[in-house]
Amino acid sequence: MINVRTDLVLEAREIYKESHKDEVDIDGIEVIEESDDDIKVTTVKVKNDEGAKKIGKPKGNYITIGMPDFTAYDGETMDRVSQVVSEILQRLIKIDTEKTVLVVGLGNWQVTPDALGPKVTEKIMVTRHLQTVMPEAIDESVRPVCSIAPGVLGVTGIETVEIIKGVVEKIKPDLVICIDALAARRVERVNTTIQIGDTGISPGAGVGNNRKQINEENLGVKVIAVGIPTVVDATTIANDTIDSVIDSLINNSSSGNEFYKMLKSLDKNEKERLIKEVMSSKASMDMIVTPKDIDLMVNSLSRIIANGINMAVQPNMDMDEINKFMG
């Protein structure tokens, strides 16, 4: 497994295949591709321990939604993506309507690229309290939903999973949905990809800041993870740029092709290690990069995810009814 920072299973599979070109298929990995007009949906099923070991991800189902360009700027496209998110979540939510759902917004609300989770929780239709406070105003078909944004260890001094576990033990939800900002390997997937998985999540893993996993094993309840990559490692950008420059030189140079091809064939791990060493010596730290319009993107993307979750957990309500409820 190449040591590249990515939370996306689709990319982990791509990286493995790039380094094992002799393998046509990866044992233990099944891939299903669908499309809904210009929205591409790819399901990666990690079916056994061998497949999990090869791509470095737990066994389970991972659904990746590829959004059209400029989705965050087009309300109609945002609604279409929300509908796809809702349909995928409904496939994974196998509980009765009266069962309780806890929505958890992971991340640091003070850091914009990491604020996706908390911003989603602000837009979730919370109903659990209404059954007690004003039962006459709530229909029996409305599922009890509650929401929390527990913050991050550096702000609270408490492991995120410990906060969530305490809430889970108190309110006993039947399902937990976690939302988090992710890290991508490829720049083109930043803010354009949604990953939904049924294996839980490890906060901070994509940026090398691993925390305790938030999963069924640790919480005692099924966990669905929803994430969007908002950052990419600067090392991977530098590496891809160097490869592009070398490709251009190979294509346009009438001589010296062998030298450029030699550079191109350098071991990927060794090349990335050298790039990281050079960058760290200049900046004295690892650098994580995010787009300049991240404020707008996180606001739009949080709306897409929140609407998708609201429709999925309230299947007896349409979007207009949910919007009326939210005021």
TrEMBL record:
* Catalytic reaction list: Endopeptidase action with P4 Glu or Asp, P1 preferably Glu > Asp, P1' hydrophobic and P2' Ala
- What domain of life does the UniProt record list for this protein's source? Bacteria
Q: Which Gene3D superfamilies match?
A: HybD-like (3.40.50.1450)
Pfam families in the cross-refs: Peptidase_A25
How is the polypeptide modified once translated? Autoproteolytically processed. The inactive tetrameric zymogen termed p46 autoprocesses to a smaller form termed p41, which is active only during spore germination.
Q: Give the UniProt keywords, A-Z.
A: Hydrolase, Protease, Zymogen
Q: Which GO terms describe its biological process?
A: proteolysis; spore germination
**Which EC number(s) are documented for this chain?**
3.4.24.78
Is Magnesium given among the entry's keywords? no
Positions of the propeptide removed during maturation: 1-7
Family that this chain belongs to: Belongs to the peptidase A25 family.
Summary of subunit composition and partner proteins: Homotetramer.
UniProt xrefs under HAMAP family: Germination_prot
Function text: Initiates the rapid degradation of small, acid-soluble proteins during spore germination.
Protein name per the record:
Germination protease
What is the organism of origin for this protein? Clostridium diolis
This protein's encoding gene:
gpr
